[in-house]
């Protein structure tokens, strides 16, 4: 099983690269981790849906349900995206703002390890935001999430065969990649 992590900033082209890499497979499961809770997010979800080939299967569910969907799928899996998945885990738990933050962080990191170590699909591509290039958030929740996301990205990169950083639509392969793949 090949594992690929695609990192980048918001609207950098990371999802498009992941879709190109995944489209080479006969059977694809697209794990859509976002919830369309406002008009802007509804529009983003709509654009992602329109880009997907009609024969791709789609999973949309609670963060904890992703493990069953991915491990039981006999084809390529694209998870878009780890950042939204982690934010849903954090925002659903009151510990995110409270004193039991360390427990939540460890649980979220364990779930991340589990996601990247699942056996089953022939190919796993995970999209994630690189949050380490941005400013340190001015509030505790933002700093906590930035720390968690950076740690989760590091876990994913260690577990993956290939890692790309997408900047302005151009992938820079930082681990074991094909420098000629451009979406």
TrEMBL record:
The keyword Cell inner membrane does not apply. GTP binds at residues 8-15, 32-34, 49-52, 60, 80. Keywords: ATP-binding, Cobalamin biosynthesis, GTP-binding, Kinase, Nucleotide-binding, Nucleotidyltransferase, Transferase. Its EC number is 2.7.1.156, 2.7.7.62. GO terms for molecular function: adenosylcobinamide kinase activity; ATP binding; cobinamide phosphate guanylyltransferase activity; GTP binding. The active site is at residue 48. GO terms for biological process: cobalamin biosynthetic process. It catalyses: adenosylcob(III)inamide + GTP = adenosylcob(III)inamide phosphate + GDP + H(+); adenosylcob(III)inamide + ATP = adenosylcob(III)inamide phosphate + ADP + H(+); adenosylcob(III)inamide phosphate + GTP + H(+) = adenosylcob(III)inamide-GDP + diphosphate. The keyword Transcription regulation does not apply. It comes from the Bacteria. Pathway: Cofactor biosynthesis; adenosylcobalamin biosynthesis; adenosylcobalamin from cob(II)yrinate a,c-diamide: step 6/7; Cofactor biosynthesis; adenosylcobalamin biosynthesis; adenosylcobalamin from cob(II)yrinate a,c-diamide: step 5/7. It is an enzyme of class 2 (transferase). Pfam families: CobU (PF02283). InterPro entries: CobU/CobP (IPR003203), P-loop_NTPase (IPR027417). Belongs to the CobU/CobP family. Catalyzes ATP-dependent phosphorylation of adenosylcobinamide and addition of GMP to adenosylcobinamide phosphate. This is Adenosylcobinamide kinase. It comes from Thermanaerovibrio acidaminovorans (strain ATCC 49978 / DSM 6589 / Su883).
């Amino acid at each position: 099983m090949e594992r690929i992590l695609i990192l980048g900033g918001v609207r950098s082209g990371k999802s498009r690269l992941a879709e190109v890499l995944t489209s080479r497979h006969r059977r694809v499961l697209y794990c859509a981790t976002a919830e369309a809770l406002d008009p802007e997010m509804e529009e983003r979800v709509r654009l992602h849906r329109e880009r997907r080939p009609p024969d791709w299967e789609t999973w949309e569910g609670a963060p904890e349900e992703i493990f069953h969907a991915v491990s039981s799928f006999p084809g390529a899996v694209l998870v878009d995206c780890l950042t939204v998945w982690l934010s849903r885990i954090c925002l659903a738990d009151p510990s995110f703002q409270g004193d039991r933050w360390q427990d939540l962080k460890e649980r979220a990191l364990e779930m991340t390890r589990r996601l990247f170590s699942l056996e089953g699909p022939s190919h796993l591509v995970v999209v994630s935001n690189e949050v380490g290039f941005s400013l340190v958030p001015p509030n505790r929740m933002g700093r906590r999430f930035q720390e968690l996301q950076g740690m989760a990205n590091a876990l994913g990169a260690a577990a993956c065969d290939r890692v790309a950083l997408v900047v302005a639509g151009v992938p820079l392969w930082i681990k074991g990649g094909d420098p000629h793949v451009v979406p």
